[in-house]
Amino acid sequence: MPPKITRRNFLKIATLGAGATILAGCANPRRWVTLEPYVRPPEEQLAGVATWYASACRMCPAGCGIIVRIMNGRALKIEGNPEHPLNQGKLCARGQAGLQLLYNPDRLNTPVTQSSRGSHQFKAIAWEEGINTLFEKLQGAGDQVAVLGGSSMSGHLYDILGRLTGAIGASPPVIYDPLVSMNGYTALKDVDMALFGKAALPTYDLGNADIVISFGADLLGPGLSQVRYGIEYGKFRSGRLGQRGYLVQLEPHMSLTGAKADLWLPVQPGMEGLVAQAIIDLIASQSFASPDPLRLERAKLFAGPVDLNKTAAATGISPTELLHLAHIFAEAEHPLAIPGGGLSGLPDANASLTAVQALNFIVAMAAGGTGGMSLSPEAQLSKLVVKPQPSSFIDMLALLGKMKAGVVKVLLVVGSNPVYELPLQAGLAEALAKVPYVVSFAPIVDETAAQADLILPDRTYLESWGYDVLSPAFDLPVVSSQQPVVTPLFDARSAADVLLTVAKGIPAAAKALSWTDEVAFLKEVIGGLPAGVATGAGGVIWERYLQHGGWWPAATAALQAAPAGEKLKPQPLQLAAPQFQGDAGQYPFFLHLYVSSLLSDGRGANLPWLQASPDPLTTGSWQTLVEINPATAQKIGVVDGEVVRVASPYGEIEGYIYTYPAMRPDTVAIATGQGHTDYGRYASQHGSNSLLLVGAQPAWASVRVNVTSTGRKGKLSIFEWKLGVEEGFPNQSFPGG
Amino acid sequence: MRLKTVSPAGWRIIVVIVVILVVATAAILLFVTQARAAPEQPIAFNHQVMGQLGIQCLYCHNTARESPAAGMPSLAKCMGCHKVIDPTNPVIKEVVAYWDNQQPIPWVRVNVMPRFVFFSHEVHVNGGVNCEACHGDVAHMTVDRPVVRMNMGWCLDCHEKQPNASQLMDCVICHR
Asked: Residue A457: exposed, middle, or buried by beta-carbon count in 10 A (0-12, 13-18, 19+)?
């Protein structure tokens, strides 16, 4: 019989245990730490002293300059490059998280082949074998080769891919990912071409503007250049003594920019263009005391018959508010109108964008002036350095058509993940099935790489070469330099080097691509630039270009003013209410799809820092939140944390209800980025892919959805609860709701 | 008259107190000795041999004059000599084995400074402090072991004797 545990015995045992623990603790040399000295030390490293290397960020297409802190050959911290004219030493959360791409445990260590697509039965092969296979396939395919790339690809890789496809007679690379369409790159260029006679992306001199009307542009979010607009916003608010800029934000769901606006107007989705049209019409018809009388004249060029009350009813913005907007815009010294990327996803995208850009047109900034819209100046460099040219969704569909027709024998996928990103209806699965050989250059097996026959893992941006021509580039044309800041951690090889090697064996390509490696290629291209700040007086000294993080001219270069357009003949605006996809009875809500501040279009989902960082507005992480107004939640009988099914005419996803007071009751808002099935352990099996709700057409922002409860309830992974926030919004009902 | 004796319960209390005292003393002694004992190294590196041959500390710990860290020699540095010198010695064979595998030797740090202390070898060595002043007579040790308890009192003992003591006694000199 075991001894009975009395109080006394218990105390004895406890005392003995404590004594033993103390003794064990003393004997254990827990304070000893192991050192890891170099086997072969690099010359420039000094133990205990950090080395900083300048490079370019590749976490989004903006192209900020970064400096990376290196200790004993390990990258420890990424900061903004203080010398860089774009981000001026600042960096966003996504840029900081780039380290986790470098150290990601899911990176491929060798090239692999896959016997049957999607099986995940990868077989490691040697690099020689991988390169030889690619060569054989390319040689056998002749001109039936297609290239699909992503928007944050290095310029030199795009250049090499372009030369390669050009030499073998294939069509040029298609650059498409959700950031291309959701930022409206191609649509904006088309509109600027028609209005200003120049196909360039607009940049907005927010810092010198006094009135800004943003039509759903999330400038402080993951839009065109989050860091630079953050700096500009600071100047706009407090950069000028005694003058504070006034920001109006029109959007159905409050974004980070909306949360900072002076006036937030919940416009009905898709009606932003009508608001712009009404403002122009009011400027033309009312006699405002504008500092520039020509502004009123120019407004007349665009003004059409607008019924103010009808517009108010359609847009959800009252006649008084419309008049207020027209009044402040007409009378401001430096007014600015900014179209959001969402406008490019409307059926009449060009009409809506034109209506907003027409507001900038009537302001007609003088050459060299400040405070308005200008056209990005990188076009000055177009003959010297190449920048990936984003393709439209139509181009993407054309590529899919070619694949389906069986005229693509080899598909190269570089820095893009179409299996995750494209709507199901686009038919990528059938198209891929018709392509005999798919090669992916993904460093981590993503959804597309899982459908590839051969994966030749590229190096991550912290271990590879490149450059980025900024677009939009604000006041200066800038080339950010990208260099390896650490020796490669995995046995990955640069895609550009692999292609240059392969090209050696194809006679036509060998002629077009005679460089030994990518560095030789880069040196030649960059060497062709004129002298810039910090790159040496006579021309570009390569080492200085790398040391300072890029090339840019002295800051006095004149802004590319949006021309007043005497030669162009503006037409009166013709806008109609956009047709949304889906029957209003069956799908009662508008879908407001927005780019996640952290995960971006999904490319950041494999980094735990970004997954775990709370969203700036909902404070949610790791999950897909279905945001609806509390009043709507009450009406359809769902509560916070309830798992709901959101269905559109094209697909359905599940997500957690999050009641969000700062949005229209007729709208459902979902961020992009979650719901990966591959792409590493941190990305897969979290949330749902909201891009599946969109159909196979360019109009991604005009979809209707319905919301039904699954009856299940989950816990919201949010950082802060909404106490106090909801009290401030006592189920306020918005016009149009 | 009866002599007052200790009751059995009293004896037990005395025994418990004695046991506690013994355990505590043993713990303290063990802590003190362990703190000064040499950690176990992957290779029993003999500093004494190097010292006798007249090799300076800075030959191997070469960043002590220009960096906060004194630096551990790279394996390439070891092999620079031992490719030729005494390669058949069993201990040196262990070094060669690491070199053949191109793996660093996982040396164990002997003198540990807490993370909240900023210490720079550079200023001390350039200021004329000998290595021996803190690390002891390593040139006469076989395997290196800590000789001084590098606590704050010991640091300040020297700092306050310096001509610029008023600066060196400032908290933020080390705690920054």
From this structure: buried
Place of tokens 């039904």: A708
Q: Which residue has the higher pLDDT, A50 or A475?
A: A50
CA distance A544 to A533: 10
Task: Please list the residues that pair with A233 across neighbouring strands.
Answer: none
Chain A closest CA to B130's CA: distance in Å?
Answer: 20
Task: Determine contact, residues A85/A548, Cβ cutoff 8 Å.
Answer: no
- A576, part of any domain: no
Asked whether residue A6 is assigned to any structural domain, the reply reads: no
If you measure CA to CA, which chain A residue comes closest to B113? A31
Neighbours of B86 (CB within 10 A): 11
Does A535 reside within a domain? no
pLDDT band at A33 (very low <50, low <70, confident <90, very high): confident
Q: What is the residue range of A603's domain?
A: 589-726
Residue A465: which of A495, A489, A490 has the closest Cα? Answer: A495
Q: Stretch A372-394: mean pLDDT, rounded?
A: 83
A164 and A94 within one domain: no
Terminal CA-to-CA distance of chain A, rounded, Å?
76
Assign A81 to helix, strand or coil.
coil
**Which of A26, A44, A51 to probe the B interface (max B CBs under 10 A)?**
A26
Quote the number of domains for chain A.
4
Q: Of the candidates A23, A33, A46, which has its C-beta nearest B30's C-beta?
A: A23
Contact assessment for residue A66 and residue A427, using Cβ atoms and an 8 Å cutoff: no
Residues of A with Cβ-Cβ distance to B31 under 8 angstroms: 26
Q: Choose the closest CB to B76 out of A34, A39, A48.
A: A39
Query: Is A41 within a domain?
Result: no
Question: How much is the pLDDT for A734?
Answer: 43
Tell me how close the Cα of B76 comes to any Cα of chain A, in angstroms.
5
| Partners of residue B34 in chain A, C-beta under 8 Å | 26-27, 29
Interface of B with A in 73-92 (CB under 8 A): 73-77
**B15 touches A at CB < 8 Å:** no
Bigger pLDDT: A72 vs A187: A187
Q: What is the mean pLDDT of chain A?
A: 89
Name the closest residue on chain B to residue A43, using Cα atoms: B74
Q: What is the ipTM of this complex?
A: 0.78
Share the mean pLDDT of chain B.
88
The pLDDT assigned to A733 comes to 47
Q: Summarize pLDDT for A524-543 with one digit per residue, the tens.
A: 999 988 888 887 777 889 99
How far apart CA A626 and CA A63 sit, in angstroms, is 31
Token pair in block for residue A24: 């064990």
Question: A542: exposed, middle or buried (C-beta count within 10 Å: 0-12, 13-18, 19+)?
Answer: middle
pTM: 0.85
